[in-house]
Structures are given as C-alpha cells and as structure tokens.
Design goal:
719 residues; alpha/beta; 4 domains; eight-stranded parallel beta sheet; elongated
Length: 719
C-alpha cells in the first residue's frame, strides 16, 4: 500500500503532464490524418484442391491429426509462395508498365518519372517488360537497376510497399485462399489482386510441372536401374539352382526328412522283430533235449541248401523293397516268395525231419520259419541302416544349398520390393504430370466500395497511446527512484527506527522565535512545530544522560535547523537548555547567534561555567578552525567539564559535523549516550551512505533513531 500511495502522489505531481501531452498528441494526429484518402479493398479467391477430395489424385492414409498438420503445411507453403518477392516483383512490373504506357495511370507520375527523357522512358519500359517476361528481380548491385528500383519506390510500387497493404490468408478450414489489397483506388486494388493471383498460379503451375517432369524422368531412370538389378538377382538364383541341381529345396528337404522318419521307424520295428524272434527261438530250443537238438541240426543241414536259393531271392527282393522306400508294389512279390519258402520248408520237414517225436513236429516247423524270418530281419536291418545313412548324407548336403538359396531369394525379394515401390511412385508421378494443376481463380477481384474511415479511430488511439506512454514513463521513473519519501521507507532502508519527521517550510527565512512564541501560525508552520514536539517527546524517553548528539550523513541535510528547533522545543517546556555547535567545518549556529563562549575556551579551561547567565537557552559556539574535540583537551578533562554542564542544564543538544568526517563526529559519543541522525527526504541511500547507516546501527542503544527532515507537504498526508 505504501508503494501505491507513493505512486499516486507521483501521478498527482505530474497530472498536468498526463493531460497536456495526450491532448497535444490528439491535435497533431487530427491535422495529420484529416487529408488521408479513402481506402478501397478488393478481394479474390483461389481454390487449391487440397481439402476438396474430388480433385485429389492421391488420398492420405494418415490419422486425422497428421492429415490436418499436412494440410496446414501445404496452405502455409502456398501463402508464403504468394508473398514471395519474386511474385510481387512481377506485379510491380505490371503496375509500372501500365502507368507508363496507359493514358489513365493508377497514380500520378512521380518526379523521377517526369524527369526522364522520352528515350530514357522507352528504355525503362523495355527493361521492365524484359524483367517481367523472364521473371527476374532487380539486381541492386547494378547502378542502372538501382535507378529502376527507385522509380518503383517513388510510385510505391516496390515489393515492400505492396506487401504492406497485402493480406493473404486461408478462409477458415475451407479449401480457399483469400487475397486482399487496400489502396486509395478501387481499380488499383482490383488490378493488383487479379494480377497477383494470375502471376502466382502461372508461377506455381510452371514450378510444379517442372518438378513433376524432373521427378518423372528421375523415377523412370530409377525404375530401369531397379528392374535391371532385380533381373540380375533372379538370374543369380536361377543359375545357382541349375548349377547345383536344386529344384525345390523345401519340397526336397521335406521328402528326405519324411523318408528318414520312415527308415528310422522301420529300423525300430526290425530291431523289435529281431529281439522278439530271437527270444522265440531260444524258447523253442529250450524245449528240446540235447539229443533232439543234435538230430534236428543234422537233419536241417541236409535240407537247408534247398531253401537257401529261395531265401537269397527273397533277400534280393526285400533289398529292392527297402531301397525303393517301401513301395507297396514289392509287397505282393515278397508275399509270394514267402509262400514258396513255407511250402519248401513243409516238404522238407515232412520228408527228412520227421521222427517219432510227432508231438514236437509243430515246434520244428515254427523254428524253421523263425530262423528264416530272423535271417530276413537281420539282412534288412543292415540295408535299412545303410539307406538311412545315405538319406542323412543327402539331407546334410541340402543345408548349405538352403542357406545360399535363402540369401539369394532374400536379395530377389528386396530387389522386387524396391522395384515395385519405385514403379508405383513412377506411375503416380506420371499420372500427376499428365493432370492439370489444381489451383484455380474461382473469384475475380472487383473494384470495391470505400471502407469506413479510420481517422477518428487513429485520433482516439493516438490519445490513448500517448496517455499510456506517459503512465509508463512515470512508472519507470517511480520504479528506478530509490529516494526516501516516508518514514517507513527510511526505516526499511536503514533497518533502524525513525523517531519522527519534519515537514519542509516554503519560507526562505525562518524565524524560530515566532514559530515557538506566536499562536497565529499557518498550517505548514503549525505542522512543523507539532512534529518537533513529537520528536522532543520521543527523545525525552530515550535520553539517558541529558545529552543528545545530532548528526547527519552529509552536509546540508538540515541538522542545524533541527538542533536549533529542538533546543527551542525543550526551552518551551521550562527546561534549561544548552546548544553546543561542534560543527567545526560549518559553524552556522555560531555565525547566526552570538554565543556566550566557544567550546575551545570552555574545554581548554580558559573560561568556566560563570560565563553562563540565567537565560533558559544558552548557546556554545566554536571558532571554526579545522580541529577536533580531543585535540582541544583530554578525554578526562572533557568528561569533567561535561559533568559540570549536566549539573547546570537540563538538556544539552550537540550538533556535530557530518558522518563523512567520522572521527570528529564520533568523538562526542565518548561523552554522550544518545545520538540521532538527520536524513533529508527525497534523497537516496547509496552504497557509500550504507556504510554510515551500518555504523550507526552498530552503536546499539546509543543510536536512538532517525529524524526525516524536509519532508514535502504532499507526502505528509499519506504518512
């Protein structure tokens, strides 16, 4: 709140400035804008085909947010192209050619054009037409072309001037771009908008078609390169398969693996058959006695040779059956040979092996059959195992082929994908190149009506802006102003208490006797008197030894006036007061009032207390020499003299030099327990002053506080 109050007082101080400057600004603005010509706006509209899906040759597959961002980017690109200097320069050339060649120009010819000779004028027109035809900008490094640019600028047809009145924007979320231009002529506005639209569409069409052509040519070459690369990969794969007799690795490996499983399963079956039949033979042999087994083996030896041939044929046929991968066509032949073999065994057993042991004849038959079956199983086991080894070797040979073929097929797949992707882009680019451009001028600009006048708005804005600017300047002054404007600010800055404040008096000469004796005082003098009474009251409570030292940081802060008035204030309370002027550098009190004695004479012992009469207010001056208190007498002598003065006077007020002469000021602190500082209002506490405020704060109880002096009257009402 304190800051607000201070700022309010500052505004009140500059209230006339806040009124006069805006009024003057309004008057000046009025005279400046009263002759402004009317403004005419013309508008054209271009359809882009970006949002209109019926005109799109490709459709976005991204999300809605990505699509919106892409659409906004496309519109931004189109708008920036339209604002390009290259495009606006084309409009500038058209305008200047029109005004130089037509009977009714849009603007009056400038002095630069009027100064041209007929030959120079023809050369200028020819150059502008050449630049327009080639879509070239002016080379400002060429002096001759700088002159052409100056001609454009003199007519306000240069790109910077035109761009200042041009507005290009997208109409909401629509598919249209609006082009607006305002000028002093409706025909001029329409001419600029229409020419800008046509120049933009022509330039953009040429740019897009050129890019599409370059892209199509590049993609066509890339398609051929990718097709050749793909064909090379396919040839490599085909040659490798032919060279290594690989038809279909996956099918071949599947067949081999299936055969391996079949042979592995058949081996397991054969081994189980061998085990079971061996066990059965052992069981049959166990049922015969040794004599019967001997007879049986001798008899079998005679008949075994007859069966061998049939068994050999059966073995060969079984080998073919195994090698063929167990084809069913061999099973019938094997069954036929087995039937023949069984018949031979039956005939031989009936003829040779029969003996009286008829009961065991069936066991003999079973033994012969089991022997034959066991031999067949043993033969087939070795053959199946060899065939299985052969299949495993064949399967192992397919593994490196599989890795190589997979690598080649992967290369073919990558090359095919690249080729198809480039081919798709090539087809898309070719199709777009064959289509017409999507940009169309759907609304031609027409001369418009005059716009509402902005003169009054400009006048009002000038007043508001000048008023706000004045407020801003005053606020900046307030913000950078660190001056002490109230006791509270002084207390915050010095981090110590403030005893009171004294208002400034406007009178150049102040009669203290009149202030303290008269009753018909004006308001300022009455307030001055009351503030000093308040300070006197506070000091009465704070003083410990009847003495008070009054100092200030710098000279001229009013400590002399404060000391005199405090002496008068205590004198009015029927106290006997002694005012000591110890300001050796500026003995203003001594020069104003004839003192009864000088402190040099008193403290050196040249005079005693007898010089003081019975007057309630006595003044002790100084000779004004460059000296200090302790140079006049010893500390013990000064202390004794001060005790005598305390026994005579009720209050002793001592004005010292400023704290910039710290040694002279602080010597009095050896003989007094109270010191107050006088600070002039509207002054800053700089870093150099901060050391003195810190010193006073370091005195502790000796320092009683500050007296804010010369406080302006306008600040007092807010204190």
């Amino acid at each position: 709140m304190e800051e607000i109050a201070v700022f309010s007082r500052l505004l009140k101080k500059y209230r006339y400035t806040l009124v006069i400057i805006p009024v003057v600004t309004i008057i000046i603005t009025f005279f400046l804008v009263r002759n402004l010509s009317d403004s005419y706006i013309s508008q054209a509209q271009i359809s882009t085909g970006i949002v209109d899906e019926t005109q799109r040759t490709t459709y976005l597959s991204n999300s809605d947010s990505q699509k919106a961002v892409q659409v906004n980017q496309e519109f931004s690109n189109l708008i920036e192209i339209m604002k390009m200097k290259k495009i606006i320069d084309q409009v500038s050339y058209t305008l200047i050619i029109h005004d130089l060649t037509q009977e009714k120009p849009f603007r009056e010819k400038s002095n630069k054009i009027k100064d041209l000779s007929p030959e120079e004028l023809k050369s200028v027109i020819r150059t502008f037409k050449l630049k327009h035809g080639k879509t070239e900008g002016l080379n400002l490094f060429d002096k001759k072309q700088i002159e052409l640019y100056d001609i454009l600028r003199s007519m306000k047809y240069d790109s910077e001037s035109l761009r200042g009145h041009l507005k290009v924007y997208r109409q909401g979320d629509s598919d249209f771009i609006n082009i607006e231009f305002d000028s002093e002529s409706p025909e001029l506005s329409a001419f600029i908008v229409n020419n800008l639209s046509n120049e933009f569409i022509e330039y953009y069409t040429l740019l897009v078609k050129s890019n599409q052509k370059n892209a199509t040519t590049f993609l066509g070459k890339l398609v051929n390169d990718k097709r050749d690369a793909m064909n090379k990969k396919i040839d490599s794969l085909r040659n490798y398969k032919i060279r290594n007799r690989v038809l279909n690795l996956q099918e071949q490996s599947s067949q081999l693996y299936a055969q391996i499983l079949i042979y592995t399963d058949r081996i397991q079956q054969v081994k189980e058959g061998i085990a079971s039949k061996s066990g059965a033979l052992n069981e049959i042999d166990r049922k015969f006695s040794p004599k019967e087994r001997s007879y049986l083996e001798s008899t079998l030896t005679r008949v075994n040779q007859s069966i061998i041939n049939t068994k050999q044929n059966l073995k060969s046929l079984h080998d073919l059956y195994v090698e063929s991968g167990f084809e069913p066509k061999y099973e019938s032949s094997i069954d036929s040979l087995r039937s023949i073999l069984s018949g031979q065994i039956n005939r031989y057993t009936d003829q040779y092996i029969y003996n009286p042991l008829v009961a065991k004849q069936d066991l003999i038959q079973q033994k012969l059959n089991l022997d034959i079956q066991l031999d067949m199983l043993r033969y087939s086991l070795g053959l199946i195992e060899r065939q299985l080894d052969y299949l495993n070797n064949q399967f192992d040979k397919l593994v490196p082929h599989e890795a190589e073929v997979q690598s080649l097929e992967r290369d073919v797949d990558v090359a095919s994908r690249e080729y198809l992707a480039i081919l798709e882009k090539y087809n898309q680019s070719s199709m777009e190149y064959g289509l017409s451009i999507k940009l169309k001028l759907v609304q031609t600009a027409m001369p418009g009506l005059p716009q509402p006048s902005k003169k009054m708005l400009l006048v009002i804005l000038s007043g508001i802006i000048s008023f706000v600017f004045c407020l801003f300047v005053i606020f900046v002054l307030y913000y950078i102003d660190n001056a002490i404007k109230s006791p509270k600010i002084l207390a915050n800055k010095t981090e110590s208490s403030v005893i009171g404040y004294v208002n400034a008096l406007k009178a150049s000469i102040i009669d203290l006797r009149e202030i303290w004796t008269k009753t018909n005082l004006n308001k300022d003098e009455s307030d001055f008197k009351n503030h000093l009474r308040s300070i006197r009251f506070e000091l009465d409570k704070e003083m410990d030894d009847k003495t008070i030292v009054i100092s200030s940081i710098n000279d001229g802060e009013g400590k002399t006036l404060v000391a005199l008035n405090l002496a008068f204030a205590w004198n009015m309370t029927n106290k006997k007061v002694l005012l000591i002027d110890s300001n050796f550098g500026h003995p203003d009190i001594t020069q104003t009032v004839q003192p009864v004695a000088s402190l040099e004479d008193y403290f050196s012992g040249k005079v005693g207390t007898e010089v003081f009469d019975n007057q309630p207010l006595q003044i002790m001056g100084n000779s004004g020499h460059d000296t200090s208190l302790l140079e006049i007498a010893s500390a013990a002598a000064i202390k004794a003299k001060m005790e005598k003065l305390r026994s005579i006077f009720d209050v002793i007020v001592i004005e010292t030099v400023s704290l910039t002469k710290l040694n002279q000021a602080t010597e009095w602190l050896l003989f007094s327990n109270s010191i107050v500082g006088v600070f002039e209002a509207d002054k800053n506490i700089s870093e150099s002053k901060k050391q003195y405020t810190d010193y006073l704060n370091g005195l502790g109880g000796q320092f009683k506080g500050w007296i804010l002096n010369k406080l302006p009257v306008e600040y007092i009402s807010k204190v």
